[in-house]
Amino acid sequence: MKKVSILLAVAVLLGVAVSQINLASFISYQQKRSDAIIAEKMAASIGTLAYVYGYPLVDMAAQMHNETHLVKAEQQVYAPINRLHRFDEIVGPDNAGNLRLPNNDTLYFSGWFDIRNEPVIIHTPDTQGRYFTIAVTNLYSEVTHIGRRTFGTDEAYYALVSPDWQGTLPEGITPIEVESTTGWLLGRMYVAGKNDKPAAVDAMNNIWMAALSEFTPGQKPATPTPANSDPIDPLKSIEFFSYMNKALRTLPTRASEQALMAQFDLIGIGPNSHFDPEQLSEATLKGLEQALEEGINIVEASELRTLPSYNGWMIPQKVGRYGFDYIQRASVVANGYGNLPEESTYAATLTSGDDDIMTGSNTYKLHFEKGQLPPVKGFWSVATYELPKKQLASNEINRYSIGDRTPGIHFNDDGSLTIWLQSEKPEDPNKNWLPVPEGIFMAVMRMYEPEQAILDKEYQLARIERVK
């Protein structure tokens, strides 16, 4: 009897021990599973927002690398850091380079600046009233303008300086504070067609930049030896978060975004983190891969989302300054960056008055009644772009825009103006013909130095109408 009791007691004790072991294993398993779920879902959720937020930072990092290094044999845009690339051809279908929705009204020049150690000086010549502008763009795609509207057209020197720079500039140099220590300059010089191009090129060639330590008034600095490299394209890989993290570590944290940065740090991509994908847990990496996919989908969708419409024309409400509207910021960057509205206001449409998508198989007209042309201090033009390329399309007369400076433009007897948008050349030679792509296309109206009526939306563009 004692033997049976002892054996039973041992069996009970062993059973309890086994149960405790199973319970501990179960708890441990559940904890690890819960940790993995949290890590994956947090990385997916926060990472998606981070992708939208960081899109301009990474897009600019990629462009900066690819345009300040020689990355391919036939490279259209190249200039070392703190130097300018000048594009002395009027933009057409075959020479737009990395520009998206390029204009046909100005010559382009561009460059990437680095003011981490010292300011960069920009020289602009006396353009004798000729319109020009330089969009000083920080890594957030926010813009400050140097040019005719802001400072006039006399010869001048400007200095790009970081907020924490301590030093003294030479006399006569206007400081321009830039929040990020690296960024982009995109310049535009007005050109009134081929006959005006030599004068426009001469003015553009007299715009140059130099670091403060190499600056001598009136002397354009030498160009450094080109650097070769492989191109980078991190927008659709996990490397996106590496480039974003690197940029955030160089930027001053905005007081209004401290909580957001703390969330980014929770998943290892914020300004106080050093992102290393090889050190991530499997769950976090899985979540970031989901975030990458979702972020790409959001940005691509934002490029074609419905914007506020004014008589059928979509006019972005925020360009060059965005506040907390990170989707709008990403959308503008994906579509090609932009000037502040007071510098140039853009209006775009995909549809005609019948709300049908415009295609080259139809004929359209844009009619302005007398006295109803866009009220601008500068100039205006309308251009068309083939979709989804967002580029100008070749045509038999090499005309890619029509505006108030187009040679030979014909006004109607009553003083009104009609522009004909069609793929085939009209029989009437007096028609103001703007060739359009054969497939789906977008029309973009540019209004440079717009009057207040445009900025206040009091002036509304006429709707493009389908004729047949």
Write structural notes for this entry.
This protein has 3 domains: 146 residues, VPA0735-like domain (VPA0735-like fold), CATH 1.10.3360.10; 131 residues, Sandwich (Immunoglobulin-like); 158 residues, Domain of unknown function DUF1214, C-terminal domain (Jelly Rolls). Helices cover 29% and strands 21% of the residues. The strands form 5 sheets. Strands 1-2-8-4-5 form a 5-stranded antiparallel beta sheet, with helices on both faces. The chain has a 4-stranded mixed beta sheet with strand order 7-6-3-9, with no helix packed on it. Strands 12-18-14-15 form a 4-stranded antiparallel beta sheet, with no helix packed on it. Strand 4 and strand 5 form a beta hairpin. The chain is globular, with a radius of gyration of 29 Å. About 1% of the residues have low confidence. It holds the Pfam family DUF1254. It comes from Endozoicomonas numazuensis. InterPro entries: DUF1214, DUF1214_C_sf, DUF1254, DUF1254_sf. This is DUF1254 domain-containing protein.
End-to-end separation in angstroms reads: 107 Å
Order of helices and strands: HEEEEEHEEEHEHHHEEHEEEEEEEHE
The CATH topology of the largest domain is: Jelly Rolls
Mean pLDDT: 91
**CATH structural architecture of the largest domain:** Sandwich
Instruction: Please summarize the sheet with the most strands.
Output: 5 strands, antiparallel
Structural class: alpha+beta
- Under CATH at level 1, the class of the largest domain stands as Mainly Beta
The helicity comes to: 25-40%
Shape: globular
Sequence stretches where pLDDT stays below 50 over 5 or more residues: 10-14
Count of discrete domains: 3
CATH superfamily of the largest domain: Domain of unknown function DUF1214, C-terminal domain
- How many separate helices? 8
Share in β-strands: 15-25%
| Rg from alpha-carbon coordinates | 29 Å
Spatial order of the strands forming the largest sheet = 1-2-8-4-5
DSSP, total strands: 19
